[in-house]
Amino acid sequence: MAARKILTVAEIAAADRRAIEAGTPGIELMERAGAAVAEAIAERFSQRSVCVLCGPGNNGGDGYVVARLLKARGWPVEVRALAAPQSADAKAAAARWDGGLTAWEAPLEARLYVDAMFGAGLARPLSGDAATMATLLAAHPESVVAVDVPSGLPGDSGDPHGPVVVAALTVTFHAKKPAHVLQPGHELCGEVVVADIGLAEAHSDLTENGPEAWLVRFPWPKPNSHKHARGRLVVVSGEAWNTGAARLSARAGLRMGAGLVTLLSPSEALSVNATHLEAVMLKGFDTEAELEQAAADVDAAIIGPAAGVTENTLVNVLALARTGAALVIDADAITVFRDDPEELFSVLDVDDVLTPHPGEFDRLFPGLLKESPDRIAAARRAAQQADAIVLLKGGDTVIAAPDGRACVNTNGSPWLATAGSGDVLAGFIGSLIAQGMESFEAACAAAWIHAEAAELHGPGLIAEDLPGLAPTILRRLYEGRLG
Ligand SMILES: NC(=O)C1=CN([C@@H]2O[C@H](COP(=O)(O)OP(=O)(O)OC[C@H]3O[C@@H](n4cnc5c(N)ncnc54)[C@H](OP(=O)(O)O)[C@@H]3O)[C@@H](O)[C@H]2O)[C@H](O)CC1
Ligand SMILES: [K+]
Protein backbone atom coordinates (compact mmCIF):
# COMPACT_ATOMS: atom_id res chain seq x y z
CA MET A 1 0.00 0.00 0.00
CA ALA A 2 1.49 3.31 -1.07
CA ALA A 3 0.83 6.51 0.87
CA ARG A 4 -1.79 8.65 -0.87
CA LYS A 5 0.09 11.60 -2.36
CA ILE A 6 -1.42 15.03 -2.75
CA LEU A 7 -0.10 17.18 -5.60
CA THR A 8 -0.37 20.93 -6.00
CA VAL A 9 -1.86 22.43 -9.16
CA ALA A 10 1.65 23.25 -10.43
CA GLU A 11 2.87 19.71 -9.73
CA ILE A 12 -0.06 18.11 -11.56
CA ALA A 13 0.37 20.47 -14.51
CA ALA A 14 4.05 19.48 -14.64
CA ALA A 15 3.15 15.76 -14.56
CA ASP A 16 0.71 16.47 -17.38
CA ARG A 17 3.39 18.24 -19.44
CA ARG A 18 5.87 15.42 -18.86
CA ALA A 19 3.34 12.88 -20.13
CA ILE A 20 2.71 14.97 -23.26
CA GLU A 21 6.47 15.44 -23.86
CA ALA A 22 6.96 11.69 -23.41
CA GLY A 23 4.57 11.08 -26.29
CA THR A 24 1.00 10.93 -24.96
CA PRO A 25 -1.00 13.64 -26.77
CA GLY A 26 -3.02 16.02 -24.56
CA ILE A 27 -6.25 14.93 -26.25
CA GLU A 28 -5.48 11.36 -25.20
CA LEU A 29 -5.14 12.46 -21.55
CA MET A 30 -8.43 14.33 -21.98
CA GLU A 31 -10.11 11.22 -23.39
CA ARG A 32 -8.86 9.17 -20.43
CA ALA A 33 -10.02 11.84 -17.97
CA GLY A 34 -13.47 12.05 -19.57
CA ALA A 35 -13.76 8.26 -19.71
CA ALA A 36 -12.95 8.02 -15.99
CA VAL A 37 -15.67 10.53 -15.16
CA ALA A 38 -18.25 8.77 -17.34
CA GLU A 39 -17.31 5.45 -15.74
CA ALA A 40 -17.58 6.83 -12.19
CA ILE A 41 -21.02 8.26 -13.04
CA ALA A 42 -22.28 5.02 -14.58
CA GLU A 43 -21.07 3.08 -11.53
CA ARG A 44 -22.98 5.30 -9.11
CA PHE A 45 -26.11 6.51 -10.90
CA SER A 46 -28.79 4.68 -12.87
CA GLN A 47 -29.33 5.95 -16.41
CA ARG A 48 -30.90 9.43 -16.30
CA SER A 49 -30.96 12.75 -18.15
CA VAL A 50 -27.63 14.56 -17.90
CA CYS A 51 -26.67 18.18 -18.48
CA VAL A 52 -22.93 18.79 -19.01
CA LEU A 53 -21.76 22.34 -18.30
CA CYS A 54 -18.56 23.07 -20.23
CA GLY A 55 -16.15 25.94 -19.59
CA PRO A 56 -13.65 27.31 -22.15
CA GLY A 57 -10.54 25.44 -20.92
CA ASN A 58 -9.46 21.83 -20.66
CA ASN A 59 -11.87 21.20 -17.80
CA GLY A 60 -14.60 21.97 -20.30
CA GLY A 61 -12.77 19.73 -22.79
CA ASP A 62 -13.14 16.84 -20.36
CA GLY A 63 -16.83 17.69 -20.18
CA TYR A 64 -17.34 17.22 -23.95
CA VAL A 65 -15.73 13.78 -23.65
CA VAL A 66 -18.02 12.83 -20.74
CA ALA A 67 -21.04 13.97 -22.76
CA ARG A 68 -20.04 11.88 -25.79
CA LEU A 69 -19.31 8.75 -23.76
CA LEU A 70 -22.52 8.90 -21.72
CA LYS A 71 -24.52 9.47 -24.92
CA ALA A 72 -22.78 6.43 -26.43
CA ARG A 73 -24.05 4.42 -23.44
CA GLY A 74 -27.57 5.51 -24.33
CA TRP A 75 -27.99 8.26 -21.72
CA PRO A 76 -29.99 11.37 -22.72
CA VAL A 77 -27.32 14.11 -22.69
CA GLU A 78 -27.42 17.86 -23.30
CA VAL A 79 -24.33 20.11 -23.37
CA ARG A 80 -24.19 23.81 -22.49
CA ALA A 81 -21.12 25.90 -23.25
CA LEU A 82 -20.21 28.78 -20.96
CA ALA A 83 -17.91 30.06 -23.73
CA ALA A 84 -16.42 28.58 -26.89
CA PRO A 85 -13.55 26.14 -26.26
CA GLN A 86 -10.18 27.90 -26.26
CA SER A 87 -7.38 25.34 -26.00
CA ALA A 88 -6.53 23.03 -28.89
CA ASP A 89 -7.45 19.92 -26.88
CA ALA A 90 -10.78 21.36 -25.73
CA LYS A 91 -11.58 22.35 -29.34
CA ALA A 92 -10.77 18.81 -30.48
CA ALA A 93 -12.94 17.28 -27.75
CA ALA A 94 -15.81 19.65 -28.57
CA ALA A 95 -15.51 18.75 -32.28
CA ARG A 96 -16.11 15.09 -31.37
CA TRP A 97 -19.40 15.99 -29.66
CA ASP A 98 -22.20 15.68 -32.17
CA GLY A 99 -25.21 16.31 -29.95
CA GLY A 100 -25.49 20.09 -30.38
CA LEU A 101 -25.64 22.74 -27.65
CA THR A 102 -28.47 23.87 -25.39
CA ALA A 103 -28.72 27.56 -24.47
CA TRP A 104 -26.85 28.29 -21.21
CA GLU A 105 -29.83 29.98 -19.62
CA ALA A 106 -32.51 27.40 -20.60
CA PRO A 107 -34.41 25.95 -17.59
CA LEU A 108 -32.49 23.28 -15.68
CA GLU A 109 -34.51 20.10 -16.09
CA ALA A 110 -31.91 17.32 -16.13
CA ARG A 111 -31.58 14.83 -13.27
CA LEU A 112 -27.77 14.96 -13.18
CA TYR A 113 -25.34 17.84 -13.80
CA VAL A 114 -21.71 17.48 -14.78
CA ASP A 115 -19.77 20.54 -13.69
CA ALA A 116 -16.94 20.97 -16.22
CA MET A 117 -16.81 24.76 -16.03
CA PHE A 118 -13.38 25.28 -14.43
CA GLY A 119 -10.65 23.10 -12.99
CA ALA A 120 -8.25 23.34 -10.09
CA GLY A 121 -6.18 26.13 -11.62
CA LEU A 122 -9.00 28.67 -11.39
CA ALA A 123 -7.32 32.06 -11.56
CA ARG A 124 -10.05 34.30 -10.14
CA PRO A 125 -13.45 33.94 -8.44
CA LEU A 126 -16.40 32.77 -10.56
CA SER A 127 -18.41 35.63 -11.98
CA GLY A 128 -21.25 36.22 -14.45
CA ASP A 129 -22.97 33.16 -15.93
CA ALA A 130 -20.65 30.71 -14.18
CA ALA A 131 -21.39 32.26 -10.79
CA THR A 132 -25.14 32.20 -11.45
CA MET A 133 -24.94 28.55 -12.46
CA ALA A 134 -22.97 27.65 -9.31
CA THR A 135 -25.68 29.28 -7.22
CA LEU A 136 -28.47 27.45 -9.09
CA LEU A 137 -26.70 24.09 -8.76
CA ALA A 138 -26.19 24.63 -5.03
CA ALA A 139 -29.90 23.84 -4.63
CA HIS A 140 -29.27 20.25 -5.86
CA PRO A 141 -25.84 19.14 -4.59
CA GLU A 142 -26.91 15.49 -4.66
CA SER A 143 -27.26 15.75 -8.48
CA VAL A 144 -23.89 17.33 -9.24
CA VAL A 145 -20.73 15.57 -10.39
CA ALA A 146 -17.64 17.79 -10.56
CA VAL A 147 -14.81 17.24 -13.02
CA ASP A 148 -11.47 17.64 -11.19
CA VAL A 149 -12.87 20.10 -8.59
CA PRO A 150 -16.20 21.81 -8.02
CA SER A 151 -15.88 24.99 -10.11
CA GLY A 152 -14.99 28.00 -8.00
CA LEU A 153 -12.75 25.99 -5.69
CA PRO A 154 -9.06 26.93 -6.01
CA GLY A 155 -7.08 23.70 -6.16
CA ASP A 156 -4.28 24.65 -3.80
CA SER A 157 -6.22 26.21 -0.95
CA GLY A 158 -9.66 24.59 -0.81
CA ASP A 159 -10.99 27.98 0.20
CA PRO A 160 -13.40 29.54 -2.32
CA HIS A 161 -13.42 33.32 -2.60
CA GLY A 162 -16.82 33.56 -4.25
CA PRO A 163 -19.63 31.35 -5.55
CA VAL A 164 -18.70 27.68 -5.72
CA VAL A 165 -20.31 24.49 -6.96
CA VAL A 166 -21.25 21.89 -4.34
CA ALA A 167 -20.94 18.32 -5.59
CA ALA A 168 -21.98 14.83 -4.53
CA LEU A 169 -19.08 13.31 -6.47
CA THR A 170 -15.80 14.76 -7.68
CA VAL A 171 -13.61 12.84 -10.09
CA THR A 172 -10.04 14.08 -10.15
CA PHE A 173 -7.03 12.81 -12.01
CA HIS A 174 -3.79 11.13 -10.95
CA ALA A 175 -3.76 12.50 -7.37
CA LYS A 176 -5.85 14.62 -5.04
CA LYS A 177 -5.06 18.33 -4.83
CA PRO A 178 -5.02 20.22 -1.50
CA ALA A 179 -8.58 21.46 -2.21
CA HIS A 180 -9.89 17.88 -1.96
CA VAL A 181 -8.57 17.42 1.58
CA LEU A 182 -8.63 20.88 3.19
CA GLN A 183 -11.86 22.33 4.55
CA PRO A 184 -14.19 23.65 3.28
CA GLY A 185 -13.09 22.15 -0.06
CA HIS A 186 -13.23 18.59 1.29
CA GLU A 187 -16.89 19.06 2.21
CA LEU A 188 -17.77 20.74 -1.12
CA CYS A 189 -16.36 17.84 -3.18
CA GLY A 190 -18.57 15.09 -1.82
CA GLU A 191 -17.09 11.68 -2.59
CA VAL A 192 -13.70 12.05 -4.29
CA VAL A 193 -12.56 9.51 -6.86
CA VAL A 194 -8.95 9.65 -8.04
CA ALA A 195 -8.72 8.29 -11.59
CA ASP A 196 -5.52 6.97 -13.10
CA ILE A 197 -4.95 8.62 -16.48
CA GLY A 198 -1.51 7.13 -17.01
CA LEU A 199 0.73 9.92 -15.70
CA ALA A 200 4.14 9.00 -14.29
CA GLU A 201 4.67 8.95 -10.50
CA ALA A 202 5.61 12.36 -9.13
CA HIS A 203 7.38 13.06 -5.86
CA SER A 204 5.40 14.79 -3.13
CA ASP A 205 6.03 15.52 0.54
CA LEU A 206 2.32 15.96 1.08
CA THR A 207 0.08 12.97 1.78
CA GLU A 208 -3.43 12.20 2.87
CA ASN A 209 -3.39 10.54 6.27
CA GLY A 210 -4.26 6.86 6.39
CA PRO A 211 -2.76 3.51 7.38
CA GLU A 212 -0.92 3.27 4.02
CA ALA A 213 1.34 6.04 5.32
CA TRP A 214 2.43 4.36 8.56
CA LEU A 215 0.93 0.90 9.23
CA VAL A 216 4.04 -1.02 8.14
CA ARG A 217 5.97 0.75 10.89
CA PHE A 218 3.29 0.48 13.59
CA PRO A 219 4.90 -0.69 16.87
CA TRP A 220 3.09 -3.97 17.49
CA PRO A 221 4.50 -5.94 20.45
CA LYS A 222 6.89 -8.76 19.57
CA PRO A 223 6.53 -12.28 21.02
CA ASN A 224 9.36 -11.51 23.48
CA SER A 225 8.13 -7.98 24.38
CA HIS A 226 7.84 -7.09 28.06
CA LYS A 227 6.29 -4.03 29.59
CA HIS A 228 9.58 -2.15 29.98
CA ALA A 229 10.37 -2.72 26.33
CA ARG A 230 6.91 -1.56 25.15
CA GLY A 231 7.60 2.06 25.99
CA ARG A 232 7.65 4.13 29.15
CA LEU A 233 5.38 7.13 29.09
CA VAL A 234 4.79 9.81 31.71
CA VAL A 235 2.02 12.39 31.87
CA VAL A 236 2.28 15.46 34.08
CA SER A 237 -0.84 16.08 36.17
CA GLY A 238 -2.27 19.50 36.97
CA GLU A 239 -3.02 20.62 40.52
CA ALA A 240 -5.62 18.95 42.76
CA TRP A 241 -8.66 20.56 41.11
CA ASN A 242 -7.38 19.93 37.59
CA THR A 243 -6.30 16.32 37.36
CA GLY A 244 -8.83 14.63 35.06
CA ALA A 245 -7.32 15.76 31.75
CA ALA A 246 -3.91 14.26 32.51
CA ARG A 247 -5.55 11.01 33.64
CA LEU A 248 -7.43 10.87 30.32
CA SER A 249 -4.10 11.23 28.49
CA ALA A 250 -2.51 8.54 30.64
CA ARG A 251 -5.37 6.10 30.11
CA ALA A 252 -5.24 6.76 26.35
CA GLY A 253 -1.49 6.14 26.44
CA LEU A 254 -1.96 2.76 28.05
CA ARG A 255 -4.70 1.76 25.60
CA MET A 256 -2.50 2.72 22.66
CA GLY A 257 0.03 0.17 23.86
CA ALA A 258 2.71 1.85 25.99
CA GLY A 259 3.98 -0.76 28.46
CA LEU A 260 4.31 1.53 31.47
CA VAL A 261 2.41 4.74 31.98
CA THR A 262 3.04 6.91 35.03
CA LEU A 263 1.19 10.00 36.12
CA LEU A 264 3.64 12.49 37.61
CA SER A 265 1.60 14.49 40.07
CA PRO A 266 2.26 17.50 42.26
CA SER A 267 2.30 16.06 45.81
CA GLU A 268 -0.80 18.00 46.83
CA ALA A 269 -2.77 16.23 44.05
CA LEU A 270 -1.51 12.72 44.78
CA SER A 271 -4.48 11.57 46.80
CA VAL A 272 -7.08 12.75 44.31
CA ASN A 273 -5.14 11.08 41.49
CA ALA A 274 -4.61 7.90 43.53
CA THR A 275 -8.34 7.34 43.96
CA HIS A 276 -8.85 7.26 40.19
CA LEU A 277 -6.00 5.12 38.92
CA GLU A 278 -5.51 1.40 38.41
CA ALA A 279 -2.99 0.24 35.80
CA VAL A 280 -1.59 3.76 35.42
CA MET A 281 1.13 4.30 38.05
CA LEU A 282 1.54 7.38 40.18
CA LYS A 283 4.57 9.29 41.39
CA GLY A 284 4.76 12.62 43.21
CA PHE A 285 7.00 15.63 42.65
CA ASP A 286 7.33 19.02 44.28
CA THR A 287 10.01 20.79 42.31
CA GLU A 288 11.14 20.96 38.71
CA ALA A 289 14.29 19.08 39.72
CA GLU A 290 12.17 16.24 41.11
CA LEU A 291 10.10 16.21 37.92
CA GLU A 292 13.27 16.03 35.83
CA GLN A 293 14.49 13.12 37.91
CA ALA A 294 11.14 11.30 37.73
CA ALA A 295 11.22 11.56 33.93
CA ALA A 296 14.91 10.74 33.59
CA ASP A 297 14.48 7.27 32.13
CA VAL A 298 11.30 7.54 30.15
CA ASP A 299 10.77 7.42 26.41
CA ALA A 300 8.08 10.08 26.11
CA ALA A 301 6.45 12.71 28.29
CA ILE A 302 3.15 14.54 27.88
CA ILE A 303 2.58 17.92 29.44
CA GLY A 304 -0.23 20.39 28.98
CA PRO A 305 -3.66 18.83 29.59
CA ALA A 306 -5.08 20.98 32.44
CA ALA A 307 -1.50 21.72 33.49
CA GLY A 308 -2.41 25.33 34.32
CA VAL A 309 -1.18 28.47 32.60
CA THR A 310 1.38 29.08 35.34
CA GLU A 311 5.09 29.65 35.82
CA ASN A 312 5.24 26.09 37.23
CA THR A 313 4.03 24.64 33.93
CA LEU A 314 6.64 26.65 32.05
CA VAL A 315 9.53 25.47 34.22
CA ASN A 316 8.16 21.92 34.13
CA VAL A 317 8.29 21.91 30.32
CA LEU A 318 11.89 23.10 30.45
CA ALA A 319 12.71 20.44 33.04
CA LEU A 320 11.26 17.68 30.84
CA ALA A 321 13.22 19.05 27.90
CA ARG A 322 16.44 18.39 29.83
CA THR A 323 15.63 14.65 29.92
CA GLY A 324 16.02 12.36 26.92
CA ALA A 325 12.26 11.95 26.61
CA ALA A 326 10.40 12.99 23.48
CA LEU A 327 7.83 15.61 24.47
CA VAL A 328 4.19 16.01 23.55
CA ILE A 329 3.34 19.60 24.38
CA ASP A 330 -0.35 20.36 24.45
CA ALA A 331 -2.86 22.94 25.67
CA ASP A 332 -1.64 24.99 28.70
CA ALA A 333 1.97 23.96 28.09
CA ILE A 334 1.70 25.71 24.72
CA THR A 335 -0.10 28.77 26.06
CA VAL A 336 2.49 29.43 28.81
CA PHE A 337 5.03 30.29 26.10
CA ARG A 338 2.83 32.93 24.44
CA ASP A 339 5.12 35.78 25.56
CA ASP A 340 8.32 34.07 24.46
CA PRO A 341 7.77 31.24 21.97
CA GLU A 342 11.50 31.23 21.19
CA GLU A 343 12.19 30.02 24.72
CA LEU A 344 10.15 26.92 23.89
CA PHE A 345 11.54 26.46 20.38
CA SER A 346 15.11 26.60 21.67
CA VAL A 347 14.60 23.40 23.69
CA LEU A 348 12.66 21.39 21.07
CA ASP A 349 13.85 18.95 18.45
CA VAL A 350 12.29 16.76 15.78
CA ASP A 351 11.24 14.10 18.31
CA ASP A 352 8.93 16.59 20.00
CA VAL A 353 5.33 17.26 19.04
CA LEU A 354 3.27 20.41 19.50
CA THR A 355 -0.49 19.86 19.31
CA PRO A 356 -2.13 23.30 19.07
CA HIS A 357 -5.68 24.12 18.06
CA PRO A 358 -5.79 27.28 15.90
CA GLY A 359 -6.02 29.61 18.95
CA GLU A 360 -2.98 28.01 20.60
CA PHE A 361 -1.19 27.98 17.25
CA ASP A 362 -1.66 31.73 17.01
CA ARG A 363 -0.11 32.19 20.46
CA LEU A 364 3.11 30.47 19.37
CA PHE A 365 3.12 31.66 15.76
CA PRO A 366 1.33 35.03 15.79
CA GLY A 367 -0.25 35.90 12.44
CA LEU A 368 1.14 32.84 10.63
CA LEU A 369 -2.22 31.17 10.00
CA LYS A 370 -3.73 34.34 8.60
CA GLU A 371 -0.82 35.24 6.36
CA SER A 372 -0.27 31.71 4.98
CA PRO A 373 -2.05 30.61 1.80
CA ASP A 374 -3.46 27.57 3.60
CA ARG A 375 -3.21 25.47 6.77
CA ILE A 376 -0.62 23.15 5.22
CA ALA A 377 1.76 26.02 4.51
CA ALA A 378 1.18 27.43 7.99
CA ALA A 379 1.87 24.10 9.71
CA ARG A 380 4.99 23.51 7.62
CA ARG A 381 6.43 26.92 8.45
CA ALA A 382 5.58 26.45 12.12
CA ALA A 383 7.35 23.08 12.19
CA GLN A 384 10.45 24.66 10.70
CA GLN A 385 10.34 27.57 13.11
CA ALA A 386 9.89 25.35 16.15
CA ASP A 387 12.12 22.55 14.82
CA ALA A 388 9.47 20.10 16.00
CA ILE A 389 6.46 18.22 14.69
CA VAL A 390 3.37 20.44 14.61
CA LEU A 391 -0.11 18.96 14.65
CA LEU A 392 -2.56 21.75 13.84
CA LYS A 393 -5.98 20.60 15.00
CA GLY A 394 -9.21 21.11 13.10
CA GLY A 395 -11.78 19.31 10.97
CA ASP A 396 -8.81 18.92 8.61
CA THR A 397 -5.97 18.35 11.09
CA VAL A 398 -2.58 18.96 9.45
CA ILE A 399 0.61 17.34 10.72
CA ALA A 400 3.91 18.84 9.56
CA ALA A 401 7.58 18.07 10.12
CA PRO A 402 10.57 20.44 9.93
CA ASP A 403 11.89 18.51 6.89
CA GLY A 404 8.82 19.57 4.86
CA ARG A 405 6.72 16.42 5.17
CA ALA A 406 3.04 17.18 5.75
CA CYS A 407 -0.01 15.02 6.11
CA VAL A 408 -3.68 16.01 6.10
CA ASN A 409 -6.18 14.06 8.15
CA THR A 410 -9.41 13.61 6.18
CA ASN A 411 -11.33 11.24 8.47
CA GLY A 412 -11.94 14.01 11.04
CA SER A 413 -15.13 13.40 12.98
CA PRO A 414 -17.59 16.05 14.21
CA TRP A 415 -18.07 13.93 17.34
CA LEU A 416 -14.56 14.91 18.42
CA ALA A 417 -15.81 18.39 19.23
CA THR A 418 -16.12 17.51 22.91
CA ALA A 419 -14.16 18.44 26.03
CA GLY A 420 -11.11 16.28 26.66
CA SER A 421 -10.79 14.74 23.20
CA GLY A 422 -7.49 16.60 22.71
CA ASP A 423 -6.14 15.13 25.96
CA VAL A 424 -6.82 11.65 24.59
CA LEU A 425 -5.09 12.53 21.31
CA ALA A 426 -1.99 13.67 23.23
CA GLY A 427 -2.02 10.34 25.07
CA PHE A 428 -2.25 8.36 21.83
CA ILE A 429 0.65 10.32 20.30
CA GLY A 430 2.87 10.04 23.38
CA SER A 431 2.20 6.33 23.60
CA LEU A 432 3.19 5.59 20.00
CA ILE A 433 6.36 7.66 20.34
CA ALA A 434 7.20 5.86 23.60
CA GLN A 435 6.88 2.59 21.68
CA GLY A 436 9.48 3.72 19.19
CA MET A 437 7.44 5.15 16.36
CA GLU A 438 8.97 8.19 14.67
CA SER A 439 7.21 11.28 16.03
CA PHE A 440 5.74 12.53 12.72
CA GLU A 441 4.28 9.12 11.94
CA ALA A 442 3.12 8.69 15.54
CA ALA A 443 1.19 11.95 15.30
CA CYS A 444 -0.33 10.89 11.96
CA ALA A 445 -1.32 7.44 13.23
CA ALA A 446 -2.74 8.82 16.47
CA ALA A 447 -4.83 11.46 14.69
CA TRP A 448 -6.27 8.89 12.31
CA ILE A 449 -7.07 6.32 15.03
CA HIS A 450 -8.57 9.04 17.25
CA ALA A 451 -10.98 10.09 14.47
CA GLU A 452 -11.86 6.50 13.57
CA ALA A 453 -12.65 5.78 17.21
CA ALA A 454 -14.91 8.83 17.39
CA GLU A 455 -16.77 7.81 14.21
CA LEU A 456 -17.21 4.30 15.58
CA HIS A 457 -19.06 5.69 18.58
CA GLY A 458 -20.88 8.59 16.91
CA PRO A 459 -23.61 10.48 18.77
CA GLY A 460 -23.17 10.86 22.51
CA LEU A 461 -19.39 10.48 22.43
CA ILE A 462 -17.49 11.84 25.42
CA ALA A 463 -13.72 11.89 25.70
CA GLU A 464 -13.79 9.18 28.37
CA ASP A 465 -15.16 6.77 25.71
CA LEU A 466 -12.26 7.25 23.31
CA PRO A 467 -9.54 5.16 24.99
CA GLY A 468 -11.98 2.23 25.23
CA LEU A 469 -12.83 2.50 21.53
CA ALA A 470 -9.20 2.37 20.43
CA PRO A 471 -8.87 -1.45 20.73
CA THR A 472 -11.50 -2.01 18.00
CA ILE A 473 -9.57 0.24 15.62
CA LEU A 474 -6.26 -1.32 16.67
CA ARG A 475 -7.66 -4.79 15.97
CA ARG A 476 -8.71 -3.74 12.46
CA LEU A 477 -5.24 -2.34 11.84
CA TYR A 478 -3.61 -5.44 13.33
CA GLU A 479 -5.62 -7.72 11.06
CA GLY A 480 -4.79 -5.58 8.02
CA ARG A 481 -1.11 -5.11 8.86
CA LEU A 482 0.17 -7.66 6.37
CA GLY A 483 -1.53 -5.92 3.44
N1 LIG B 1 -3.41 15.77 -15.58
C1 LIG B 1 -4.57 16.29 -15.46
O1 LIG B 1 -4.98 16.55 -14.35
C2 LIG B 1 -5.39 16.57 -16.64
C3 LIG B 1 -6.38 17.52 -16.57
N2 LIG B 1 -7.20 17.86 -17.55
C4 LIG B 1 -8.23 18.79 -17.32
O2 LIG B 1 -7.72 20.07 -17.54
C5 LIG B 1 -8.18 20.95 -16.54
C6 LIG B 1 -7.32 22.16 -16.43
O3 LIG B 1 -7.48 22.84 -17.60
P1 LIG B 1 -7.10 24.38 -17.81
O4 LIG B 1 -7.38 24.70 -19.22
O5 LIG B 1 -5.74 24.61 -17.31
O6 LIG B 1 -8.08 25.15 -16.81
P2 LIG B 1 -9.64 25.44 -16.88
O7 LIG B 1 -10.36 24.41 -17.63
O8 LIG B 1 -10.09 25.70 -15.50
O9 LIG B 1 -9.82 26.76 -17.71
C7 LIG B 1 -8.89 27.79 -17.77
C8 LIG B 1 -9.49 28.85 -18.68
O10 LIG B 1 -10.53 29.48 -17.99
C9 LIG B 1 -10.24 30.88 -17.86
N3 LIG B 1 -10.63 31.26 -16.51
C10 LIG B 1 -10.03 30.95 -15.36
N4 LIG B 1 -10.72 31.43 -14.32
C11 LIG B 1 -11.81 32.05 -14.84
C12 LIG B 1 -12.92 32.73 -14.28
N5 LIG B 1 -13.05 32.87 -12.96
N6 LIG B 1 -13.84 33.24 -15.11
C13 LIG B 1 -13.71 33.10 -16.42
N7 LIG B 1 -12.68 32.47 -17.03
C14 LIG B 1 -11.75 31.96 -16.24
C15 LIG B 1 -8.79 31.02 -18.10
O11 LIG B 1 -8.60 32.26 -18.64
P3 LIG B 1 -7.32 33.16 -18.25
O12 LIG B 1 -7.64 34.49 -18.78
O13 LIG B 1 -7.21 33.16 -16.76
O14 LIG B 1 -6.17 32.50 -18.90
C16 LIG B 1 -8.51 29.87 -19.05
O15 LIG B 1 -8.81 30.28 -20.35
C17 LIG B 1 -8.22 20.09 -15.32
O16 LIG B 1 -9.07 20.64 -14.35
C18 LIG B 1 -8.77 18.79 -15.90
O17 LIG B 1 -10.18 18.81 -15.89
C19 LIG B 1 -6.94 17.25 -18.89
O18 LIG B 1 -8.05 17.17 -19.66
C20 LIG B 1 -6.35 15.86 -18.76
C21 LIG B 1 -5.14 15.85 -17.93
K1 LIG C 1 -15.15 21.54 -12.47
Automatic annotation (TrEMBL):
Its EC number is 4.2.1.136, 5.1.99.6. GO terms for molecular function: ADP-dependent NAD(P)H-hydrate dehydratase activity; ATP binding; kinase activity; metal ion binding; NAD(P)HX epimerase activity. Its cofactor is Mg(2+); K(+). It catalyses: (6R)-NADPHX = (6S)-NADPHX; (6S)-NADHX + ADP = AMP + phosphate + NADH + H(+); (6S)-NADPHX + ADP = AMP + phosphate + NADPH + H(+); (6R)-NADHX = (6S)-NADHX. Residues 12-205 form the YjeF N-terminal domain. The keyword NAD applies. K(+) binds at residues 59, 115, 151. (6S)-NADPHX binds at residues 58-62, 119-125, 148, 245, 357, 423. It holds the Pfam family YjeF_N. It comes from the Bacteria. Residues 210-477 form the YjeF C-terminal domain. GO terms for biological process: metabolite repair; nicotinamide nucleotide metabolic process. Binds 1 potassium ion per subunit. AMP binds at residues 393-397, 422. Keywords: ATP-binding, Isomerase, Kinase, Lyase, Metal-binding, Multifunctional enzyme, NAD, NADP, Nucleotide-binding, Potassium, Transferase. PROSITE patterns: YJEF_C_2 (PS01050), YJEF_C_3 (PS51383), YJEF_N (PS51385). InterPro entries: Carbohydrate_kinase_pred_CS, CARKD, Nnr, Ribokinase-like, YjeF_N_dom, YjeF_N_dom_sf. Homotetramer. Belongs to the NnrE/AIBP family. Bifunctional enzyme that catalyzes the epimerization of the S- and R-forms of NAD(P)HX and the dehydration of the S-form of NAD(P)HX at the expense of ADP, which is converted to AMP. This allows the repair of both epimers of NAD(P)HX, a damaged form of NAD(P)H that is a result of enzymatic or heat-dependent hydration. Catalyzes the epimerization of the S- and R-forms of NAD(P)HX, a damaged form of NAD(P)H that is a result of enzymatic or heat-dependent hydration. This is a prerequisite for the S-specific NAD(P)H-hydrate dehydratase to allow the repair of both epimers of NAD(P)HX. This is Bifunctional NAD(P)H-hydrate repair enzyme. It comes from Phenylobacterium haematophilum. The gene is nnrE.
